[in-house]
């Protein structure tokens, strides 16, 4: 089996309104880097599915970084799509990932409707 390594595992929502912002951000921040990209409604809301994908990325591609991107006005969250809820959920996911993979760098972002990426400090 050929050993394929990549730099990061990135999770964002499928919402079409944000794809241009995400692409531009990735082009700028991951220039000359490789990454596995997962687009899933609600980003990390279905944590079981996301963790399965992360496990594969760690096992097959020996990633070193995880980037989780939630966004404003997320339909998968419905009325629960508040800034505080997303920040709390991102923090919970970071804790779970760090418990399982303590050496991974985990970066959290909240993407606003205007395209601004807000770095979130998820407490663990």
UniProtKB/TrEMBL annotation:
InterPro entries: Carbonic_anhydrase_sf, Pro_CA_2. It holds the Pfam family Pro_CA_2. One of its GO terms (molecular function) is zinc ion binding. This is Carbonic anhydrase. It comes from Candidatus Roizmanbacteria bacterium CG_4_8_14_3_um_filter_36_10.
